[in-house]
């Protein structure tokens, strides 16, 4: 005859465990939420009412830390009371075994593990994004409070100091905010956080603009609607002096402009993505900004190589290369070849077709006339643009050409066989004119190939772009200009996938550890029923704490060293299971 499950005993145990669990969870979550909010309150980013809202938003994320320890604490106290009051002994006398007595905490552990897994993979990322928006939505308040405390405002790799800050009256109907700074010092940092450039100014205007930026820059160019709200900070100092570190004197500039988007850490850290988003990111790494930045860098360098090779091919085959200027007007370069200059840094030398010959640039003006500038010596510079100032605006070409012709002379105008008169006004690109109608330097900015390869390269995914870079290197040989961004992109993608793997296993291990921790608390209460409750809990708390620490350390080891770190990550959980089982065997034996 089978024995009926002791539902009445289970019900009373569950009531005791969950009463203590919920009370402990409420206290821990409140304390942890306040600890998370107090830093922003002290920095002036949040007011009193916003701090309360921040605490409410922080409570669901804090549950992932509070629930396991609260469950272990509640199970320890509840089972210790049952054991010390001899109620467990009475259950044994009635034929209820140890395994049956532990069923309520095992069921509770399964439920709590599922709750934590759901929180980490679905709910917490959304609350974290709401917390971030609450902190960064009023960037003006953050800047003002930092300057009032005589602290630096960090904007990307630049630190901004000021002696005084004031707000302008809002004349934009909330479209932007404007600040006035006096006694400004901007410090640009290197990658190692050492000072690179110092920019000082008597005063500066600051605009803070809320704008929609596409989560995926490619989607923005295609008119997609997958966007998020960001804050763009534009700083325009006046009477600027720039000094590079190591130089005695600085150079005086009339003006300079710095534009910076306040970074969204929640968008660039896989830690704040749901399980589904992590899987999608593993398949398509281009969804995250940090990969997009490296991909844009490699795409620009690959495009530069394709552009220069195409120009050389056209010059070799036809003696001229078809270009367009910044306004889309036809531009023809007539020369023999271009060659990387060993005399002028970051420039290509444009060689004539024959010794003693000239380089010609034919331009088509708006009225249809064609002007030809002839020069005995010319240079070409490729200018790289890896991102647009406004992600929602029109995309800029990643590579543009800057042509510089020295001692340039206008020799022909379409429709006229005679040279142009000397009184022809200088072009906007090159206002510097020498006597006799010869330009000291004729410069064309923003030129590009008539058949620009950039759009095709920009559409390539990271794997396809890496394959394109490998193909280019195989043809050209060793090329650090392409190899360096290629290796960096490949390293970043591998690092991202390891981080995704580590985060997913961390979430699974944390939820499973919650099940083990609550059972450990109950077993230790039965094992040490003659000890004080706090002493009993410490015997369960320290092994549980060691488990959480090994899970965190294993996650970091997996991220940096690969799947071998999973041994440490799951080793802590396995160790806690072994510890609990050994203690349970001693309870049964006694």
Short structural summary:
The chain has 590 residues and is of the alpha+beta class. The chain has helices at 7-43, 48-84, 87-93, 98-101, 103-136, 139-148, 217-221, 265-268, 275-283, 289-318, 454-458, 462-476, 480-527, 533-561, 565-589; strands at 153-155, 158-167, 176-189, 195-214, 227-244, 251-255, 258-261, 320-324, 330-334, 337-340, 348-351, 359-364, 370-375, 377-384, 399-413, 438-449.
Poorly predicted tracts of residues: 213-227, 387-394, 414-436
Tally the helices: what do you get?
Answer: 15
What is the typical, i.e. mean, pLDDT?
Answer: 81
User: How many separate structural domains?
Assistant: 3
What does this structure look like?
With about 600 residues, the chain is of the alpha+beta class. It folds into 3 domains: about 5-135 and about 505-535 and about 565-590, no CATH class; about 155-260, no CATH class; about 290-460, no CATH class. The chain has 15 helices and 16 strands. The protein has helices spanning about 5-45, 50-85, 85-95, 100, 105-135, 140-150, 215-220, 265-270, 275-285, 290-320, 455-460, 460-475, 480-525, 535-560, 565-590; strands spanning about 155, 160-165, 175-190, 195-215, 225-245, 250-255, 260, 320-325, 330-335, 335-340, 350, 360-365, 370-375, 375-385, 400-415, 440-450. Strands 1, 2, 3, 4, 5, 6 and 7 form a 7-stranded antiparallel sheet that branches. Strands 8-9-12-13-15-16 form a 6-stranded antiparallel β-barrel. The longest helix is centred in the last third of the chain and has 48 residues, at about 480-525.
């Amino acid at each position: 005859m089978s024995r009926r499950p002791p539902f009445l005993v289970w019900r009373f145990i569950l009531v005791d465990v969950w009463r203590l669990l919920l009370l402990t969870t409420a206290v821990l979550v409140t304390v942890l939420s306040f600890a998370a909010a107090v830093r922003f309150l002290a920095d002036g980013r949040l007011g009193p009412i916003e701090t309360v809202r921040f605490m409410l938003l922080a409570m669901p994320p804090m549950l992932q830390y509070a629930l396991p320890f609260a469950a272990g604490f509640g199970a320890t106290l509840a089972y210790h009371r049952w054991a010390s009051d001899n109620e467990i002994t009475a259950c044994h006398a009635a034929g209820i075994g140890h395994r049956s007595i532990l069923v309520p905490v095992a069921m509770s552990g399964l439920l709590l593990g599922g709750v934590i897994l759901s929180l980490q993979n679905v709910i917490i990322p959304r609350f974290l994004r709401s917390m971030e928006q609450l902190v960064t939505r009023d960037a003006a308040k953050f800047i003002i409070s930092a300057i009032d405390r005589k602290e630096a405002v960090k904007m990307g790799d630049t630190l901004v100091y000021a002696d005084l800050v004031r707000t302008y009256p809002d004349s934009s109907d909330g479209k932007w905010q404007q600040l006035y700074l006096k006694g400004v010092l901007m410090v640009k940092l290197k990658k190692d956080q050492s000072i690179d450039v110092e920019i000082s100014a008597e005063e500066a205007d600051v605009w803070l603009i809320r704008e929609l930026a596409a989560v995926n820059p490619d989607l923005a160019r295609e008119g997609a609607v997958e966007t998020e709200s960001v804050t763009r900070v534009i700083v325009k100092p006046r009477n600027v002096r720039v000094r590079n570190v190591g130089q005695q004197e600085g150079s005086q500039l009339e003006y300079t402009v710095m534009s910076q988007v306040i970074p969204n850490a929640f968008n660039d850290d896989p830690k704040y993505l749901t399980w589904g988003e992590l899987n999608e990111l593993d398949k398509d790494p281009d969804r995250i900004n940090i990969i997009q930045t490296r991909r844009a860098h490699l795409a620009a360098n690959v495009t530069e190589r394709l552009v220069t090779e195409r120009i050389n091919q056209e010059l070799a085959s036809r003696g001229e290369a078809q270009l367009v200027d910044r306004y889309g007007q036809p531009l023809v370069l007539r020369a023999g070849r271009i060659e990387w200059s060993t005399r002028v840094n970051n420039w290509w030398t444009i060689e004539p077709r024959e010794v003693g010959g000239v380089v010609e640039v034919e331009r088509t003006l708006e009225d249809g006339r064609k002007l030809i500038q002839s020069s005995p010596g010319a240079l070409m510079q490729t200018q790289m643009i890896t991102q647009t100032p406004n992600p929602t605006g029109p995309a800029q070409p990643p590579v543009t050409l800057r042509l510089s012709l020295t001692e340039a002379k206008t020799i022909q105008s379409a429709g006229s066989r005679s040279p142009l008169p000397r009184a022809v006004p200088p072009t906007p690109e090159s206002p510097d004119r020498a006597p006799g109608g010869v330009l000291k330097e004729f410069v064309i900015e923003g030129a590009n190939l008539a058949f620009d390869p950039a759009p095709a390269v920009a559409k390539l995914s990271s794997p396809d772009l890496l394959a394109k870079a490998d193909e280019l290197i195989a043809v050209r040989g060793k090329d650090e200009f392409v190899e360096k961004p290629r290796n960096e992109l490949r390293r970043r993608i591998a690092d991202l996938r390891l981080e995704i793997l580590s985060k997913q296993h961390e979430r699974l291990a944390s939820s499973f550890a919650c099940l083990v921790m609550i059972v450990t608390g109950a077993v230790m209460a039965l094992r040490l029923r003659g000890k004080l409750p706090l002493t009993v809990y410490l015997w369960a708390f320290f092994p549980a704490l060691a488990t959480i620490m090994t899970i965190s350390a294993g996650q970091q080891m997996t991220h940096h060293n690969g799947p071998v770190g999973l041994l440490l990550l799951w080793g802590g959980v396995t160790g806690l299971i072994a510890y609990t089982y050994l203690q349970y065997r001693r309870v049964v034996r006694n």
